[in-house]
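Note to self: keep these together.
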Amino acid sequence: MDKGNAPFHAVIATMLIVLLTPVFALLYVGFIDPINIVSLFTRPQFTQSLALTFTGAMIAAALGLLIGAPTAYALARGMIPSWASRIASALLSSPMTIPHTVIGLAILLMVSPLSPIPLIKRLPVINSILGLVMTYFMVSSPIITGSLVQVFERIDPVYEDVGLIVGISKFGVFVRLIVPMTLSELIESYLLAWARAISEFGSVVLVAYYVIAPPLFNYVYPASVLVWYYYETYGLEPALGYAAATLLMSIIALTIIEMLRHVLGKHKWVS
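Structure:
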């Protein structure tokens, strides 16, 4: 082993210890009683919570990709003036720096009597699938636009020039050439946005504390809110089982995402 790498190994080890010690502590305490953890996955309250969370995140990530991909392409190809592009990029990434409780309050304001947009007041946002998807979209879509701008900037414009020469419109070039060339990156950005969405709490707890959407969901808590509900209502110990089970599902989801990214990485078109 190269001794010159030792400081970097120490830094990596320190980072892993700091980040993972609380996670391992939660898993250890939460799984002291394995039978109790297994029983959680048979409780409708928990399974419905996971179904609601994963479904809402999938919809939000899909909308983020549908809107964010062409937005990122337009920014990468300078389709608006540079000053406007800089402003747009800053605004598009702003949800990543704004406290998410503020985002939740902003959504609540839109549908409150104080809203400056009368039409939006009529939207069924509070405690609904729409509200859940809106919060997930707000916090996850910046990941898609931010990552894809860099992807599109690395593509040689010669491919697009050829498409324009043969009479394809700019949007047609994007759909027919760029999307197939960057399919693996598009899927990766979708998965990252989905993973980010399922972890959201700050805005969700204000907008969609529970979701009423019969017959699929009737007073169902999103996963992050369910953990908070048990902590707030019953205390730390009763919440640990749900927290550990939710953490386990997140780890499994992230593992699957990394496996898919590894497979997709072997089929990248962008050099």
